[in-house]
UniProtKB/TrEMBL annotation:
Residues 147-302 form the Lactate/malate dehydrogenase C-terminal domain. NCBIfam families: PRK06223.1 (NF004863). GO terms for biological process: lactate metabolic process; tricarboxylic acid cycle. The lineage of its organism: Bacteria, Pseudomonadati, Bacteroidota, Flavobacteriia, Flavobacteriales. It holds the Pfam family Ldh_1_N. Residues 1-142 form the Lactate/malate dehydrogenase N-terminal domain. The keyword Oxidoreductase applies. Belongs to the LDH/MDH superfamily. It comes from Psychroflexus salarius. This is Malate dehydrogenase (NAD). Substrate binds at residues 82, 88, 120, 151.
Length: 308
């Protein structure tokens, strides 16, 4: 199993590290445009192999796509991150050109690849990938909801004063400060709905904190987060690589599901060896469905900024 990660920055390196530590891939190629940068990250990570006990071979590449040939899975993290005070949508001007170029080059070398798009604004970059490369729709996946759901569970565990592993929950909708839809009515602590334990106000606070999860960290760190994003990507990669058929909310091209068309937005999907093996349609409350539709309008507005 060969995995390529484009972008050796904060998220790309974190993602490569988690993939290696989980020890399911034979090879991870990290590629960056900065001279020697990916090679340096690869060497540094390889020097953790005996410490962390993995056998994955990590290779660096300065913009040489030949090294990525015949990848089974590729992850696009190349592009700029936001600074405090910015929205993800403001990154479109620079990142659209990068994602278009990188996606095209990956597919030239790996025509059967499954592509995971991470660069922001992620839902729009995933839609862009569908427009510029010739891959079946189930092989282009946007990562956002897996991360947002992990943050939701973290916030719920704080409110419940329990370990996050006790909590189940999901965030659907666009990966944006306003567009996320944390499904508070469905969240549980060991199968008991969290609405049994938390007041409406406290749950509202959890939802709001979840939606601005990325912005909160960007303000604290001066750039956006990387540990949870890298871990979230590695979980998607593992589900595909190991045919685990796990369910994650991911950005996928919708064709009538949830009454939505011609956009990529986060909804639950099953990830296995064929990429997106199923789009799961939940029975949402009217309020949740309305929030998802509002979120979709926001994503479509950003998509209109693309020069296709
Ligand atoms: N979807 C999600 O949930 C998340 C998305 N992100 C996004 O991921 C992206 C990367 O974030 P960071 O890793 O923090 O940024 P970073 O600045 O640390 O790394 C980005 C890397 O991309 C490289 N790069 C730029 N253009 C390239 C090209 N044409 N080919 C190859 N490499 C190129 C840069 O040299 C740099 O090393 C940002 O757009 C950020 O907003 C970050 C966190 C979560
Ligand atoms: O907040 C950002 O810009 C990066 C990101 O998407 C996240 O961490 O959720």
């Amino acid at each position: 199993m060969k995995v390529t990660v484009v972008g050796a920055g904060a998220v790309g390196a974190s993602c490569a590290e988690y993939i290696a530590i989980k020890n399911f891939a034979s090879e991870v190629v990290i590629l960056d445009i900065k001279e020697d940068y990916a090679e340096g990250k690869a060497m540094d990570l390889m020097q953790t192999a005996t410490l962390n006990g993995f056998d994955t071979k990590i290779v660096g590449s300065t913009n040489d796509y030949d090294k990525t040939a015949n990848s089974d899975i590729a992850v696009i993290t190349s592009g700029i991150p936001r600074k405090p005070g910015m929205t993800r949508e403001e990154l479109i001007g620079i990142n659209a050109g990068i994602v278009k170029d990188v996606a095209t080059k990956i597919v030239e070398q790996s025509p059967n690849v499954t592509l995971i798009v991470v660069s922001n604004p992620m839902d729009t970059m995933t839609y862009l990938a569908h427009q510029v490369i010739d891959l079946p729709k189930h092989k282009i996946i946007g990562m956002g909801g897996a991360l947002d759901s992990a943050r939701f569970k973290y916030r719920l565990s704080e409110a419940l004063d329990c370990p996050a592993s006790d909590v189940q929950g999901m965030v659907i909708g666009g990966h944006s400060d306003k567009g996320m839809v944390p499904l508070t009515s469905l969240a549980t602590r060991n199968s008991v709905r969290v609405t049994e334990f938390l007041s409406e106000n406290r749950l509202q606070q959890v939802a709001e904190d979840t939606k601005v999860g990325g912005a909160t960290l960007t303000k604290m760190l001066g750039t956006s987060a990387w540990y949870a994003p890298g871990a979230a990507v590695s979980s998607l990669v593992q589900s595909i690589a190991c045919d685990q058929k796990k369910m994650f909310p991911c950005s996928t091209l919708l064709d009538g599901e949830y009454g939505l068309n011609d956009l990529c937005i986060g909804v639950p999907v099953v990830l296995g060896k064929n990429g997106i093996e199923k789009i799961v349609e939940l029975n949402l409350t009217e309020a949740e469905l309305n929030k998802l539709k509002e979120s979709a309008e926001g994503v479509k507005k950003t998509n209109q900024l693309l020069e296709l």
